[in-house]
Amino acid sequence: MKHLISIAALTAAFSFAPQAMASEGGSCHFHGHTPAKEATVTTCANQHKESLVKRGKLDKTWLTAPLDKAEQVEGSKGKEWKLSYKNPAVTDKSKETLYLFYTLPGNFIAANFTGR
Length: 116
Prior knowledge:
The protein is of the alpha+beta class. It has helices at residues 2-15, 38-54; strands at residues 67-75, 78-86, 97-103, 108-112.
């Protein structure tokens, strides 16, 4: 009987516990090894680019910079996504192309201007 009451109390506690909610951009965190579709990775890259602008890491002109290319490349740990954005409005031409890297399942790895 004591175990039955304990199980009932535990079940009730879990059923009324608040559900965990992902933060903004939380939809771009994936588990498993299934490769993400290009459209999914592109959506996540656009969100990450906007986040970099909001945090002051990128100039506001990057908000309108279009996706130039999305491709799968060989990375240091196997295949990964490499997305590039072109922004002709930047003054430093060495920083005209922004590269965002994602794992094959779609998790963010890094962003840079070198493409490596």
